[in-house]
Amino acid sequence: VKRPNYLAGLELDRASSLRSNPEKLEEAWSRPDTRVVPVFELKHPVTRREDGAVALTVLSPRDVDDFRGSRVLLGTSQGVAWFAVDLAGGEEPPGALGLREIAPLVSQSEGALLAYSFGILSWHRRHRFCGVCGSASRSTEGGHLRVCASESCGEQHFPRTDPAVIMLVEDGGRVLLGRQAAWREKVYSTLAGFVEPGESLEEAVRREVLEETGVEIEDVQYHSSQPWPFPSSLMLGFTARAKSRDIRVQLDELEDARWFTREQLRAGESVSLPSTISIARRLIEDWLKG
Ligand SMILES: [Zn+2]
Fold this sequence. Notes:
30% strand, single chain, 3-stranded mixed β-sheet, binds zinc ion, 290 residues, 6-stranded mixed β-sheet
């Protein structure tokens, strides 16, 4: 069995039936054992233990009653409800770090809990108004739906996930990696891009590789996926085989793209790999093992 990618592997029951029950939601919020994951401007305040390990800060509802930011039911675990709360409007809590920094330091399920919290709270922050009529919208269903407040409209808006494909292209002995100018020096990664309307995943994979590098591919195979809440992507990982080898870099997307051998990647002299938490790293490491 493959291990889940970083940011997946949530251990809560998402308890969707509880979302539509306002009385039970209020009752859960009133219980002192209810757990709250605080998020401040897409950072989370961690606690550092004496041995240097990092622990998530988990609060109870009374700790955050003063905050007016969004509140979302994440789910339940062993009869205890878990919420995420946006600490918007307050002061930045000490020790607050971004998800990219925290994820490598905490357990798989804690990383997933934070990714879920960041993803749904950023959706609330970015969707305060109805996209149909422009009126304000309000949160309902435990924070899993926004409804337009205009009676003549009333449009429902569901949390948004944007599919993006990310693909490891190989030619038998080498892998095709690219780099963006903004990245750390020497970092090369797998190619990636958003799926467009009216396009299948396989078509998106072929189009992105051709657009960015001029390389034609075949044998597109699904590998695994990863929630990537920066702010709302779902990364869909694929492998593919190159039909052509010549690279023609599209310079507005990439600074460079090259073929690398396993030896070059392992030696790491001219190339560094992407973040350990990324599915890109997982795709490359699985290829290195293969
Ligand atoms: Zn509306």
